[in-house]
Amino acid sequence: MTFSATVFIGTSLDGYIARPDDDIEWLTSRGEKAGDLGFFEFLDSVDAVIMGRNTYDKVIGFGKENWHYGDRHVGVLSTTLPEDADPRITVYRDMDSLLADLDRRGIKHVYPDGGRLIQSFIRAGRVDAFIISVAPVLIGAGHRLFGELTKDVPLRLDSTADVGGFAQLRYTLEK
Predict the structure, then answer these.
(1) Which residues, in sequence order, are CB contacts of 108 under 8 Å at separation 6+?
(2) Residue partners of 123: CB distance under 8 A and separation at least 6
(3) Residue 119 neighbours by CB distance under 10 Å
(4) pTM recorded for the entire structure
(5) How far apart are CA 145 and CA 10, in angstroms?
(6) Among 80, 83, 88, 142, which residue is least crowded by beta carbons within 10 Å?
(7) CA–CA gap between residue 57 and residue 54 (Å, rounded)
(8) Could you tell me which residues come within 8 angstroms of residue 132 by beta carbon, excluding any fewer than 6 positions away?
(9) pLDDT in tens, 127-174
(10) Segment 25-54, tens digit of pLDDT
């Protein structure tokens, strides 16, 4: 595999990316006040966005005007989404076909988005860097960013910054 993958995501201080009912208002309301947290600059650095089905549904729910991916390749890893659901995306049924297609397309920098998808990329050893914006809130329950792992994933802290009241942490995978 020739591409690198960088996770760009917001979490609560206690490590959640969404409430148990998938609500992310606690993040989006704070994010609107903080600005884009460097998201659009980051998005300009990637040539493919891959998301899980739940994240795709959330993005579609924001409306057509919030489709920020332009003409870059967008994939959705899903066993249930119809392959012709949206002409802007490619639907992948499994991780192997997804990774093979990214290689075939010559993709160099991938943005995996969505909790379970990010966890799959981590377990597959496909994440090279993390940009995590920690919101100044404890929500107490929900979907965690990181799932169970079979081994440690050593990281190097590259930088920390106060970005609109969020603590933005940048890590690189130690190899």
Answers:
(1) 2, 3, 4, 47
(2) 149, 150
(3) 19
(4) 0.91
(5) 9
(6) 80
(7) 5
(8) 7, 9, 10, 11, 145, 168, 169, 170, 171
(9) 999 999 999 999 999 999 998 888 899 999 999 999 989 999 999 999
(10) 999 887 666 777 888 999 999 999 999 999
Residue 64 predicted with pLDDT over 90: no
What pLDDT was estimated at residue 126? 93
In what side-by-side order are the strands of the sheet with 155-163? 90-92, 73-77, 48-52, 109-113, 4-12, 129-135, 166-173, 155-163
Pairing label, strands 73-77, 48-52: parallel
Beta bridge partners of 4: 109
- Taking only Cα atoms into account, the Rg of the chain, rounded to an integer number of angstroms, comes to 16
Pair of tokens at residue 151: 């081994």
Instruction: Supply the pLDDT for residue 83.
Output: 93
HSE-up of 149 (CA within 13 Å, CB side)? 14
